[in-house]
Design a protein that fits this description.
The protein is an alpha/beta fold. The chain contains nine helices and twelve strands. It has two domains: about 1-45, DNA polymerase, domain 1; about 45-315, TIM Barrel (Alpha-Beta Barrel). The strands form two sheets. Strands 1-2-3-4-7-8-9-10-11-12 form a ten-stranded mixed beta sheet, covered by helices on one side. A two-stranded antiparallel sheet has the order 5-6. The longest helix is centred in the middle third of the chain and has 19 residues, at about 110-130. Bound molecules: iron/sulfur cluster.
Length: about 325
């Protein structure tokens, strides 16, 4: 547009550091340039559509995208953290049986700006309601991040860049249902963020039943990919494990999980199941959960119980389904 190069830097800063939603806000540009930009470009920022506040402090936000699609993001405050759980796709194609998003159609991938904007908006909520900025980001909202690989990587680049939000990659976790080929790609790309695998069953027969993606990416194939990731990045894996009563919570299941942890350097996050309308799973009761965890600990597997937050507003793990 025959403008000086420093104008590009100014616009970049308005877009990625100051998160401007309109060209009008870019007050250090001349009015004529702002009008020219307005004529030639659009800023497809995400709009805060609705927010729900849980009595445990969790905030679930429904964001409206420029094409009318809707996604959800969650702010999860704990004593020492403020975590944003962000979406990577509109809906999801993987149909995990315990997950409300899995019952929706995958409409499209989010673009890097839409992923980045969720972080910016949730960070602003943290500052407004908790008086503190985000400490962590997890890609555990709607969608499978590794099926939107390029855009997720680009968003993380901006989130961690000094010319963006300047967050440490160590504070970011990407959680996958297990796409072996893309886990290897993460390793080849030498990513610095944390990787979590939604495991939920340590044998193929059970995993096939609750996570159909396991049929093409079974446990031996995932073990190979995760070890490749560990060798290349030295990043330990986290196995996410939702306890489902009578499905994956027996001592035999715990034993299989211990065996798996001997084959991959990993720790385990135990997650309480949150009921959804679409499925009739039940959550494991406390005494059985304790036995399961004690078995893991006796066999030297590090296991942490992740308490579910925001259940009263359908904001907890597996409950995101645009129900508002
Ligand atoms: S758990 Fe993740 S990958 Fe599985 S259906 Fe839900 S959003 Fe998709």
């Amino acid at each position: 547009m025959s403008e000086k190069p420093f104008r590009a830097r100014q616009i970049y800063e308005w877009l990625w550091v100051k998160s401007a939603h309109t060209f009008e806000e870019m007050t250090n540009l001349s009015k004529a340039l702002r009008d020219k930009l307005e004529d030639k470009f659009v800023i497809n920022s995400i709009q805060l559509h609705q927010a729900q506040y849980s009595n445990d402090g969790t905030i679930k936000t429904v964001f409206k995208l420029h094409d009318g699609n809707i996604i959800e993001g969650v702010l999860i405050p704990t004593d020492d953290r403020a975590t944003a759980c962000v979406s990577s796709q509109v809906g999801c194609s993987l149909s995990c049986k315990f997950c409300a998003t899995g019952y929706m159609k995958r409409m499209r991938n989010l673009d890097p700006g839409e992923i980045y904007d969720q972080v910016v908006e949730i960070n602003a909520q943290g500052l407004k309601h908790l008086n503190r900025p985000l400490t962590n980001i997890v890609f555990m909202g709607m969608g499978e991040p590794l099926l939107n690989y390029k855009n997720v990587m680009e968003a993380i680049d901006k989130i961690t860049s000094p010319e963006g939000l300047n967050m440490s990659p160590k504070r970011i976790t990407v959680s996958t249902a297990g796409i072996a080929k893309m886990i290897k790609k993460l390793a080849d790309d030498q990513v610095k963020f944390n990787l979590a695998l939604s495991l939920h069953a340590a044998n193929d027969e059970k995993r096939n039943e609750i996570m159909p993606i396991n049929e093409q990416n079974n446990i031996p194939v995932l073990v190979e990919a995760l070890n490749y990731f560990y060798e290349k990045t030295k990043g330990k894996i986290t196995f996410e494990y939702i306890l489902l009563a009578g499905v994956n919570d027996s001592l035999q299941d715990a034993k299989e999980l211990v065996e798996l942890c001997k084959r991959v350097p990993a720790k385990v996050n135990i997650i309480e199941y949150n009921p959804i309308d679409q499925a009739d799973f039940l959550k494991t009761d406390v005494s059985e959960r304790e036995q399961f965890i004690q078995y893991l600990e006796r066999h030297k597997v590090t296991a942490v119980v992740r308490r579910s937050r925001g259940k009263d507003i359908d904001a907890a793990c597996g409950q995101l389904a645009n129900k508002f």
